[in-house]
């Protein structure tokens, strides 16, 4: 069995790539901006705010949740989404470290 091409990258490089992929759609950025503004909300609020289909919003929420950027908790029959504060700060640090490598 051969070595995976991903094995040649550092943990930091892989994390930056994963986060960049999770942030790589304008709808996901809009979702995050809305969550930053309102702190928490349900899927339906995002559907109304972003004028996207519920299935589309759900898919983007799933990607953000998979990346650990947002939290989801059940309340009654609804799922409430919010920014994962620890992850957000970690993400900020990761990107700050990456961008600070530029010496030009």
Automatic annotation (TrEMBL):
Upper classification of the organism: Bacteria, Pseudomonadati, Bacteroidota, Cytophagia, Cytophagales
Domain HTH arsR-type span(s) in chain numbering: 6-104
The protein's name: Transcriptional regulator
Biological source species: Mangrovivirga cuniculi
InterPro entries for the chain: ArsR-like_HTH, HTH_ArsR_DNA-bd_dom, Metal_resp_trans_reg, WH-like_DNA-bd_sf, WH_DNA-bd_sf
Keywords tagged on the record: DNA-binding, Transcription, Transcription regulation
GO molecular function, one term: DNA-binding transcription factor activity
Cross-referenced PROSITE patterns: HTH_ARSR_2
Top-level taxonomic group: Bacteria
rRNA-binding keyword on record: no
Matching PANTHER family: ARSENICAL RESISTANCE OPERON REPRESSOR ARSR-RELATED
Extent of the signal sequence: none
UniProt-listed SMART domains: HTH_ARSR
